[in-house]
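Researcher: Next sequence.
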Amino acid sequence: MSKERPILMNGAMVRAVLDGSKTQTRRVMKPQPEPSPHRPGDYQWPCDALQSMVSVADTRAPGAHGIAGDACPHGGHGDRLWVRETWAPHPDFPETVRRAVYRADRECEHDVERWRPSIHMPRWASRIQLEIVSVRVERLQDISDADIVAEGIDMEALAESQDRYDIVCKGSGASGRATERTAWRELWESTGGDWDANPWCWAITFKRVAP
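Model: Next structure:
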C-alpha cells in the first residue's frame, strides 16, 4: 500500500513544479553514508526503515530495484508527497472555511496580513500532490546535465545570462560563462545547501498527480 508524506518546497520550486519544468528533487541523506570497512570504494549507512546497514552499491546492484525507495524516508515508487509551501488563509473567507492563498503565486492580488511558514501548512491547504517514480542514492555533484534541467533550474534566466556574457566578454579570454551546472550550484546554495561538502542525496523523480 502506498504511503503519503509531506515535503517542503520554496517558492521557486513550487513554480517549477506547477509549470512542469521540475520533475526531480534532491534531499540530503541523514545520516550521511560513510566508507565501508568491508568494501573498498563503497559507502554505507544505518537504515532505520530496514533495520540494517545499507550500502550504496546494494542500491545499484542488478535486481536491487526498490531498495533505495524502501530505505528513503521520503518514500519509494508509487508513494505520494504533498507539498508544503508558504501560505495563508484566504483573506476573503473566515478561517473556518478551508481556503488558502500561496506566496509562490506572483500574481496573488490578495491583501495577506501574515504569510505562514511552509512547515506549518496543514494537509488540507496543500494544492500539489506528487507521485514518486524512482529513488536513487548519489552525490550532489554527480548529477547529470539532464537531471539538472529536471531539477527545474530557470533555463530562460540561464540563456539570458549566457547571451549577456557572449556579448560583453566574447573574445576577451574571460572565463565564467554560466552553465547548467553553475546554475544548479546557485540553486542549491540558495536553499542553504553546502555545495563544497558534496553530500550524499536522495535523488527523487516524481510526477504531479491530481490532489
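Model: The mean pLDDT is 88. The chain has six helices and ten strands.
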